[in-house]
Design a protein that fits this description.
The chain is of the alpha+beta class and 395 residues long. The protein is built from seven helices and 17 strands. 33% of the residues lie in helices and 26% in strands. The chain has a seven-stranded mixed beta sheet. Strands 1, 2, 5, 14, 15 and 16 form a six-stranded mixed beta sheet that branches. A two-stranded antiparallel sheet has the order 3-4. It starts with a helix and ends with a strand.
Length: 395
Amino acid sequence: MDKNVRLNEIAERLKEINEAIDTTESKEELDAYNKEIDELIGERNKIMEDIQSRQAMRNKVASGAIGKVDPETPTAENEAEERAKKFVASGRTSVMTDQLRSVLVSSGKLATPTAVNGINDIVGAKHSSILDFVKIVNCEGMGKNRVAYIDEDAAEADAQTEGSEATTKEPKFGYVDITPESIAVTSQIAKPGKKQSPLQYEMKVQEQALISLRKAAVSRIVSKLKASELNRTLDAELASGKGKLTETTLTDLILDYGGDESIVGEAMLFINKTDLKEIGKIRGSENKKPVFEVIPDGSNPNIGIIKDGGLSVRYCICSALTACTGTAQSDRAIPTMFYGNPQCLELDLFSNYEINVSSDFAFTKLMDTILGDVELGADVVVKNGFVALTIPATA
């Protein structure tokens, strides 16, 4: 099959998956989509490696190092190579909004940094995976995104007397305005990376830039999650004026979600690692055995499952959240962990992601500094979308 055709097919399928992820509520479907994304990205990378190999062969032919070969060149190869060469020469490029959205919803696989000339990566996750679960919307060209939500359902209908008009029972609505915030993020890459091919260098720069962007986006998401007035709250238990987790805390938090008529599935617990460790230490009051079993995900150590007999809840570690354990009361309520459907939180992308590279800032370290900037905004967009375990304010 022609490589151009296959690359276009992969791009179209990735676009279809991104649209499907917005509406799926099944963890199994989400896992299947993520697996297919990984396979498509792997296939695309192999095609690009073949393109680079062919380009290297043509360069040797052009220099007279070897005999002539078939000069036919796929258009996609030329365009990718030319774009990469321009990036190396100018130090400027951009990630289109749709492409950026694709990266942000692919479990971070495209944004995983690669070691360059002996620079080894840090063990562990680089940022919270909350970014992989929230709803990401392309709002390019918009000055503000107004998202409506139901503030109060219609009241119970009254009995009707024959010949009289039905009583009006109307729902109440509200809205959330998500406005763009200009985000500038930096990261660095070893200068010897430039000795790679232009395509490889461009890919490594984008990887590092997008890692930095994801960290900044996570920070904004968690900040809005903590500040939203649409969340329900559940008071944490206290011991000597400090937050305390007990063997019933998690059950109370989960069963409080969804109101009086339902227990909503497809939700996730966002939690500080200190509290996660504390949950693993909780012992039963009678047999003194662990109440909860914490099972990290083998492919992503930032997420996992907490089990308590028949209760099973997915968790995601967020270091930007305040730990309930040991946090003292203050004159204001302090939200700690959150439980809810991540799709109730929206991240809007208002512009392309511009990337600039400079050799001057870390000249003596032989590092290229990457500066990226983008406009984005976030907020909770569903009333009671999350339940927050909160340390109550002092009386």
